[in-house]
Amino acid sequence: MTLLHEFFGSEGLSNRVALVFVNDDKSYTVIMLQDEAIIEERVLKEHSEQYAEDCAENWVMGVMT
User: Fold this and answer.
1) Which helix (H) or strand (E) holds 63?
2) Closest among 10, 63, 28, 65 to 19, alpha carbons compared
3) What local confidence, expressed as pLDDT, does residue 8 receive?
4) CB 52 within 8 A of CB 15
5) Would you say 22 and 3 are in contact if contact means Cβ atoms under 8 Å apart?
6) What's the CA gap between 40 and 59, in Å, rounded?
7) Which of 52, 37, 63 is nearest to 4 (CA)?
8) Beta-carbon neighbour count of residue 9 at 10 Å?
9) Which of 8, 22, 35, 62 is most buried (CB neighbours < 10 A)?
10) pLDDT for 22-55, tens place per residue?
11) Which 8-state DSSP code applies to residue 32?
12) Rg (CA), the chain
């Protein structure tokens, strides 16, 4: 896996971070953290990098709980 992007929450969600990785098979993995603990690791197959970025952004913005 290669790290592509890091997303950070702000204000009331500053304890959230999301990391977007590209995998060897060209799929993406989004690791969602809260208070430095992994909450979810989501593998996105057959989706675009933009889709993975949107997933990460939704996590840090509180759209996903």
Assistant:
1) none
2) 28
3) 98
4) no
5) no
6) 10
7) 52
8) 18
9) 22
10) 999 999 999 999 999 999 999 999 999 999 999 9
11) E
12) 11
